[in-house]
Amino acid sequence: MRKFSVCIVGGGSTFTLGFLKSFVRMREQFPLKKLVLFDIDKERQDIIGKFGEILFNEKFPELEFVYTTDVKEAYEGMDFVFMQMRAGGLPMRAKDEHIPLSMGMVGQETCGAGGMAYGLRSVVDMIKAVHDIREFAPAAWILNYSNPAAIVAEALRREFPNDKRILNICDQPENVVRSCSRLLGVDWETLDPVYFGLNHYGWFTHIYDINTGEDLLPKIKDLISQNGFLPQDAEQRDPSWLDTYGMVETLMKDYPEFLPNTYNQYYLYPEYKASHLNPDFTRADEVMAGREKRVFTECKEVIAAGTLGDKFDDISDAHAEMMINVAEAIAYNKNNRHILIVENNGAINNMQDDAMVEVVCELGTNGPRPMRVGNIPQFNLGLLVNQVSCEKLIADAYFEKSYQKALEAFTLNRMINDGKKARKILDALIEANKGMWPDLK
Ligand SMILES: NC(=O)c1ccc[n+]([C@@H]2O[C@H](COP(=O)([O-])OP(=O)(O)OC[C@H]3O[C@@H](n4cnc5c(N)ncnc54)[C@H](O)[C@@H]3O)[C@@H](O)[C@H]2O)c1
Ligand SMILES: O=P(O)(O)OC[C@H]1O[C@H](O[C@H]2[C@H](O)[C@@H](O)[C@@H](O)O[C@@H]2CO)[C@H](O)[C@@H](O)[C@@H]1O
Ligand SMILES: [Mn+2]
């Protein structure tokens, strides 16, 4: 069986620990030859890297493992590059969330003003990183899930129009499918979804039983109205994620046709959300106090002990597992189904061809083959055309360094939706993002 070389960009991320353990657990199905962690922050990188040395020494000694801040060392010889950078780090995520909320608008990692602010930062760093990767690994598959994936995907499509080995992915649709499996009491892999939308803005039209072909969506709707909706791994979730999944019940009461992505709540209830989020303690604060602390504490404990001890088990990490399954599909030409972000080109018949949409695709060595969903209803189309316009205008603002295009994106966005508010928040975010955004004129 062929073995592969993988680099993780954003090696100091809070998600890397889960990947390192998952590469050990999944070594039979996706065997690694070499694993490299790359980050621009040496301090974060070193802590996770030292943990990795101990983990692999005990559990995967034949693996060649390197952590570095040097691009050549990181990318040369790689088959896959997993991209999970956070431009500006969690402190800037906190600003993306706090600043809009302080003005009465939704503050969120990928949606609304915060999402667009993060988008402009991310596009700057992602375009540079992909150029670096292509210098040293021209044929590597680039699997991007750095957020906001919708805006990053649009910008990469424009900057690298002929590069067919860049794939943008999000785990949230699969997380929703996994959550349905909890409700139904079945294995999530027996569920065969039909899905359409943009990243973090979509709907499931059907969820079929893969064995019988029965559409389980009516049953799922009944179960949600009786029991509410919980993430598959509810016991491990912070309170804000339980609230987020809880909103699916409300969304389904108001718009019962399809099962929504959890992120739809920000677009459909912007005022309610803005008034129910705490402007002084947002998800970024919860992550810094929770996941970030847990991950770095665990690494430091293992480094101090010089051994893994009880810090490794067989409990799978859904996020890492999904991204590794995507690489596996490409590596072994599996042509199995994944929900991916791809150029539309008729997949959603009544949307523009050059929109980056999220749909079910078959995935193999030659890349994704999107499955058509036909025409979507006017309501969903109207919402998506509005949002895809925001995402395209943010990409325009980056490429043209245009204040006007950014202002138009902010004005159109459903979480702002007003020219005067748009200018006020855009100006505040320009100030907060000095040196990290292109210079908008
Ligand atoms: N699409 C998805 O489904 C999905 C799921 C989970 C996480 N994510 C994304 O993964 C990323 C990491 O999230 P996190 O919460 O662990 O953040 P984090 O801040 O803990 O980690 C990000 C790491 O990226 C590094 N970094 C920043 N800019 C970089 C650059 N230019 N080059 C290389 N490294 C750089 C930082 O130093 C940091 O160590 C975010 O973009 C997040 O949105 C996406
Ligand atoms: O608020 P965060 O940082 O916990 O999560 C934000 C991300 O949420 C989605 O991803 C998963 C995440 O990967 C998983 O580990 C767990 O935390 O649940 C999240 C939701 O299912 C989303 O798809 C990402 O784009 C966000 O960055
Ligand atoms: Mn996502």
Protein described:
With 441 residues, the chain is α/β, with parallel strands linked by helices. 49% of the residues lie in helices and 16% in strands. The chain is built from 17 helices and twelve strands. It has helices at residues 16-25, 42-59, 71-75, 89-102, 112-136, 149-159, 172-184, 217-227, 239-254, 264-268, 270-276, 283-289, 291-305, 318-331, 378-400, 403-412, 419-432, and strands at 4-9, 32-38, 64-68, 80-83, 141-144, 166-169, 191-198, 201-209, 259-260, 336-343, 356-364, 367-370. The strands form two sheets. The chain has a nine-stranded mixed beta sheet, sandwiched between helices. β1 (4-9), α1 and β2 (32-38) form a beta-alpha-beta unit. α4 packs antiparallel against α17. The longest helix is centred in the N-terminal third of the chain and has 25 residues, at 112-136. The protein starts with a strand and ends in a 9-residue tail after the last helix. The model has no long low-confidence stretch (mean pLDDT 98). Residues 149, 170-172, 200 line the site of manganese (II) ion (MN). Nicotinamide-adenine-dinucleotide (NAD) binds next to α4 and α5.
